[in-house]
Amino acid sequence: MDRKPTMRPPRAALHFAAALLASTAFFSATAHASSLQISPVSLEIHPGQSAVAVMLRNTGDTPLYAQVRIFGWTQVAADDRLEPTTELVASPPIAEIAPHGTQMVRLVRVGHERVESERCFRLLIDELPEDAAPGAAAPAVNIRIRYSVPVFVQATTGAQTPDLEWSVRSSIAGTVLRAANRGDAHVRLSAVRVTMADGTDLTVASGLLGYALGHSAREWPLSHDLHLGAGTSVSVTATENNTLVTAPARDDSTFLDARVGAAPAPAH
Question: In the CATH scheme, what architecture does the domain 2-153 have?
């Protein structure tokens, strides 16, 4: 789940703000001081279910107000993208939570059509200041904290699996780690490290790195240039959906430049 302070109202640039939010690191609901706590931090809607619930808890001594919205979540050009959706509805969209009280928010599926492949969404929960509560006179809404909770609607046909392939690429801009998921279901990636042939390790993330959605790819810039060359052997160790896996990583010499339209570096 994402959690991030925000100072500007989201209405004028909702798509941009949402996409930027989804690309940030993920944090626990209690990682920073705040009166709002959320549980669970990830949601799944299984075949036959029409709704799931998330609980909002106010640990403070004053009333708390929260705005709740749901977006479709895809990965395009190896980055996260959020778009408005009508497939799920959040109720209530605005919640007032009493001091030391709780509020249940339901996510309801609209329609009963078959889900052929896993559908992915993000539930955005904005903690609002008291003067932005319904009925309060305020020229703009300044959001205190924004949470982003992943929501997955499982395929009607039953359990589907990810199929992950790692690759790395060094360029003049640095080194990029790419996770390409050829499977039908998402994979949650945490405790990720890259190991060179000489045994050198680079920790990419000690906690949650992010997700690679089904039939999609996600990229992360590395903090150190690995100076890859012809025949370089690299492996990636990661916890994939709670299973520790070590796999080879392909030295991909074309994907980054082709995606951004950059010309190859001149030969020396």
Answer: Sandwich (2.60)
Backbone angles phi and psi of 13, in degrees to 5: -140, 60
pTM here is: 0.78
Non-local CB neighbours of 83 within 8 Å, separated by 6+ positions = 15, 71, 72, 74
pLDDT per 10-residue tile (average), the chain, 268 residues: 48 38 36 76 93 96 95 96 96 96 96 89 91 53 82 87 92 86 96 90 95 97 73 88 94 49 38
The structural domains of the chain, with segments of one domain joined by +, span 2-153, 164-260
Of 73, 89, 77, whose CA–CA distance to 15 is shortest? 73
Rounded to 5 degrees, φ, ψ at 130 are -60, -35
